[in-house]
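Moderator note: this is an archived Q&A kept for reference. The question asked for a predicted structure of one protein chain; the sequence and the answer are reproduced below.
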Amino acid sequence: MEKAEPTFGTEELRAEPHTPTVTRRTFFRGTLFQILVVGSCAFTAPGIWLAMNGLGVGGTEDPKLVNAANALLYAFMTVTCFAGPWLTNLIGFRWTLAIGSLGYPLYAAGLYVNNRFGTIWFVYFGAVACGISAGFFWSVEGAIATGYPEQHKRGRYLATWFTFRDAGSLVGGAVSLALNHKSGREGKVGYSTYQAFIAIQCLGFFFALLLSNPEQVQRDDGTRIEAPRGVDWRVQAKEVWHLARSKSILLLAPLFWYFGWIQAYPGTYFETYFTVRSRALGSLMSAIVMVLGTWIGGTLVDLPWTNSRKTRALVAYILIALLNSATWIWSVIIQNDFRHTKPVVDWSDQSTFGPGFGVYMFQNLSLGMVENYIYWCISNLSDSPGQQIRYSSLLRGIETAAVAVGFGVQAVPTALVATASINLALWFTALPFSYYATLQVVRKFDKIKAEG
């Protein structure tokens, strides 16, 4: 089997074939169950976090406070995301995922006390706590989702993982809409919304304990997942440094930076112009269209609608390129119009609600397709979770750094038309790099086919 990179030394981790006759196969050790576990954790932790931010920067009345807190969160998250391989090497995948979920309820608690009592310091405390734990969560969940599944299932299993996460936004949005549907005004959501969010997020730790570590997982194609623990930290650092300079990382880095940067914009845009009930509806609907986007992307690259995996990859890339380009051009046009008219957008006035809400939906649809595609690219660079956690930590670290900068820029604050224009420019900058990253994956498919 082809290695992900040419020179990683003897420590490189691979999935090796074996005859699966020694151990009785159980559903709870299968890859589907592992994806359901990591998906459940994604539902309770980042899914509910996204639901809160889908209300417009946490559902608060002051976007500058939450944008500043989110910038702080992602700054800490960047550091711990890069440190993910070291913690996983020490305590394993299961406990890293569990510990990574602990900070999310504290973030929601900070928004709750601010909403109800006006407390500011707890918002920043919750953001720091969430940032520290979430970096570990992001690095390990990405490695599980990309490294555990069998190769022919990765597009759909990635879509399953993202569906659970977006279902967190969907449930959170439904709860918020039920509690705020009569609030046809600007401002903050009711504090009872956060009580429901905190309760859901506390479940993530317990879901994580159901995960199997890599050596316990049973793939249905008979390959064993090897991710040995106890690797010396100097060896780990050497491996990460080799990977950081590899062509695969350098080609994907601009796309991950783009993907991280743009995440600050939609919530700020929504909070600035839309009423509370329209934002609650947007939180619900954005989850639905993101699920749609991830499944479109996963289906295009996974299901054999054509026998050529190369064709499937290139068609998916072209569709994503066209959709994102059109979306951000439209966003700049809408944002420039709103900059002059300064509307208060509510579903009772379709003249502003239709185009304003529509472009927000397309932003989330294109975001879902991009996210599935970039992780599908990662998943095909290596078959080992031990190597995948290095890929995931490096690229998600780049993503979180971009998110931190994005939220920091919005906290200044910055004119939204300028931010939308930068989003468009970053997308067109990342486009050629992502094309060559796609070709990297295609070449691997061609080599596997030639060897087979």
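Archived answer notes: The CA atoms of residues 1 and 36 lie 28 Å apart.
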